[in-house]
Amino acid sequence: MAALQNDRFLRALLKEEVDRTPVWMMRQAGRYLPEYRATRAKAGNFMDLCRNAELACEVTLQPLERFPLDAAILFSDILTIPDAMGLGLRFETGEGPVFDKPVRTLADAKKLYVPDMGSDLGYVMNAVSTIRKALNGRVPLIGFSGSPWTLATYMVEGGSSKTYSKIKAMMYDEPMTLHHILDVLADSVIAYLNAQIEAGAQAVQVFDTWGGVLTPRDYQEFSLRYMQKIVDGLKRENEGRKVPVILFTKGGGQWLEAMADTGCDALGLDWTTDIDNARARVGDKVALQGNMDPSILYAKPERIRDEVAHILAQYGKGTGHVFNLGHGIHPEVNPEHAAAFINAVVELSPQYHV
Predict the structure, then answer these.
(1) Does domain 8-353 have CATH number 3.40.50.300?
(2) Which residues are catalytic, by number?
(3) Cis status of the peptide bond prior to 52, with omega within 30 of 0
């Protein structure tokens, strides 16, 4: 593998000195880019794009050609694991993901298994190694997975949900069934992320998109407990350097201390928690990633620049900050506004690292 030319993202995650605050965007390879839309049209559909290593590599690199980003993130989907379990995943226009075989009973749960990373999910590892080779040491590559709780919400609900009625009914009435599902998922995520690391991912992030819909007690029992299991099971070093682990619970700002106690290297923050408050609470235990409201990118470039300046000042001097949005970039955003955001971080952050 080629030597890494820009490692400030990895260094910041490990709270080592950097010359400026590194920056990347969740969903940076996505529908807001016309070149992404063209490649997706060529692929035919979203999952075919994920399964084609050359096209997945092409879209992963597209934002790096436009913007001075400090990391690339594997182009894939969080539902690859449940898809590999044979639950019949498809994407309906205007409806999002749908599972033909939702997991509703203990009998359903007992049919679940850890997919084979070579045969069932080999296309993901193929994409990781293809992207890593194409990056040629330009920036690090991030691998990722959905959290067990978040994956379970889709599997039990049968798709997206506003109320989480089916999974919450299971959680309250049949907690052992849900624990069985989450346990198989945690084992699957450990195997999946370790396989990505072996294929070339240099950092990994666990996306707990729906952890914030839980009560504090239920979050600890049904989400954080399984992310703890994942952190404990991950390969933390590869190719002679540490592989940082980022945990991100959307809506999880009230649980940062408990998340930091898992032994992860960094926490992702959404925009509902001020970063100075988060830094005061977790101290030097973990790095922080975030946390600009993605909707600010609808505003004028000068307003975007002001917001970047505000967040940098909030975090203050020193390392341990990776600048990012508080969630993924929206499809309707003008790419020029994304450029204004990233360029502002590059230009304004060096003063905090002298």
Answers:
(1) no
(2) 27, 31, 40, 77, 154
(3) no
